[in-house]
Specification:
By secondary structure, the chain is an alpha+beta fold. The chain has one domain. β1 and β2 form a beta hairpin. The longest helix is centred in the first third of the chain and has 62 residues.
Length: about 150
């Protein structure tokens, strides 16, 4: 009689172990899915904010007379570089900030006149790994020839 009870207990423990392993495997898959969705959400937010920033630069260029000085006056934290180039830095929430103040992203804006057309290239870059998040090329027809 004890032999019969022992084998039944052993079978119950085996079933319990298999059930625990099955739940552990399902838990591992769910954790991986949650981590993947978090990373995808973060990348999507970065892309959406970068598109918004680049479109903002293009709209300012098109809404003003199109030269670099008129665009920079709308961005008080802009750092002017060489001829026709400036940068604006952003923190983790995509708010404008100074270069050293927790800057996580930078938008590089290059403006080049080409006869009666003003060209603008906007690149939004993640500073952590210097990866381009978004690039936008915009043009504006000018009434007079520059450059």
């Amino acid at each position: 009689m004890t032999k019969y009870l022992k084998s039944k207990t052993s079978l119950f423990l085996m079933e319990l172990i298999i059930t625990i392993l099955l739940f552990a495997a399902c838990g591992a898959v769910c954790v991986r899915l949650f981590v993947t969705s978090y990373v995808m959400t973060k990348d999507t937010v970065e892309l959406n904010e970068s598109v918004s920033i680049a479109q903002g630069f293009a709209e300012v260029m098109r809404g003003t007379d199109g030269d670099i000085d008129s665009v920079i006056e709308h961005y008080p934290m802009a750092i002017r570089g060489g001829d026709g180039f400036f940068e604006v830095y952003y923190d983790e929430n995509f708010e404008m900030c100074a270069y050293g103040d927790n800057a996580m992203y930078v938008s590089d804006v290059t403006m080049t006149p080409n006869g009666a057309i003003q060209n603008m290239e906007v690149r939004v870059v993640r500073l952590r790994d210097f990866k381009d998040i978004y690039t936008l090329d915009a043009t504006k027809y000018m009434n007079d020839t520059k450059g």
